[in-house]
Design goal:
Its EC number is 4.3.2.7. The protein contains 7 helices and 9 strands; from the N terminus they run βαβββαβαββαββααα. The chain is an alpha+beta fold. α4 packs across α6, α5 packs across α6 and α6 crosses α7. The two termini are 23 Å apart.
């Protein structure tokens, strides 16, 4: 079984795998448009985590609310993991519980630059569709950043999720682009710097958040 991670599974897979490949899926955009009341927020104060929006739907419904664009608009970088046959049932049960808050399984091909042939066919991808009950949808980026900065849940601070995702993505896919993610990262770091009061205190705060070791492959793609 192959699994494709585009959020916390990039930097915190917490599962046994025998192979992994950095790559991207086509036809989707990654956005912090999914509410999190079970991991990075609470029912009273939801956090925000990433989901995938089909590019056609995004283009038709959401371009007025989201002005980010690049030459990689319709691809999403991440990491594919191959789960050993002996661990498939256990891993699938674990992931179904981990991604229970509005996510459903889909099957998508994973690609790498330079070829139209998938490096992984029909990898499992957990996606929170725009009609799921936890879909938060678009909002001004400053408001999303403030929500992420303030939210905490059973799995920790929402900002830790954002900052580690941005950090890990730069490591595993340095040629990848995600303006939405990186602009949110910048805005949350600005809020952190205001709280810290000095660059030195900010650097110390950030060093305690970022996970420095990543089980995913780190060779540039």
């Amino acid at each position: 079984m192959w699994l494709f991670g585009y959020g916390s599974l990039i930097w915190r897979p917490d599962l046994e795998f025998e192979d992994s490949k950095v790559g991207y899926i086509k036809g989707h955009v990654r956005r912090f448009w999914q509410s999190s009341t079970d991991h990075r927020g609470t029912e009273e104060a939801p956090g925000r985590v990433v989901t995938l929006i089909p590019y056609d739907e995004f283009s038709q419904r959401f371009t007025d609310d989201d002005m980010h664009s690049s030459d990689q608009d319709d691809i999403t970088w991440g990491v594919a993991y191959k789960v050993p046959a002996s661990k498939v049932a256990e891993t699938k049960a674990y992931l179904d519980h981990r991604e229970k808050n509005g996510y459903e399984t889909h099957f998508l091909n994973v690609y790498q630059p330079g070829t139209d042939i998938p490096v992984v066919e029909k990898a499992i991808v957990y996606i929170g569709s725009t009609d799921n009950s936890e879909f938060a949808g678009p909002a001004p980026l400053d408001l999303i950043a403030q929500q992420i900065y303030a939210s905490h849940g059973p799995s920790g601070a929402n900002k830790d999720y954002l900052l580690n995702l941005a950090h890990a993505l730069r490591i595993v896919a340095p040629t990848g682009t995600d303006q939405h993610l990186f602009e949110l990262e910048l805005k949350v770091k600005e809020l952190m710097l205001q709280e810290a009061g000095s660059q030195e205190a900010f650097d110390l705060m950030l060093s305690k958040i970022i996970v420095q070791s990543h089980p995913a492959p780190v060779s540039p793609v």
